[in-house]
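Please review this pair:
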Amino acid sequence: MSVTRPAVASTGGAGETALDLPFEKALEQLEDIVRRLEKGDVPLDESVAIYERGEALKRHCEGLLQKAEARIQKITLGADGTAAGVAPLDVDAGVRG
C-alpha cells in the first residue's frame, strides 16, 4: 500500500526548488505557506507537505542571509579621515548602540 502526497502549489515555475530561488522569491513563498497554514483550512496531508516545503525555504533563506552577511564589510578610516581599507562588519557593535 503506497501513500501519495498531494501536489504542493508553488508560486514559482515548474521544477523550481528552494535552492533555485532568490531570497525575495523564497521569502514570498514562505510567507504564502505561513498564511495558508494559519488559515487552518488546508487538509492534513497537504499541511504536512507545505510545512516541509516551508522548512526547506526557511533553511534556504537563512543560508542566503548568512552569505550576504559574510560579504558585508565596513570601510575603515585612516587618521586623516579618508578611506583606508575595509574590514569585516561587526554586526553586534551596531546592535549595542
Q: What stands out?
A: Residues 44-71 form the longest helix (28 residues). The chain has a mean pLDDT of 78.
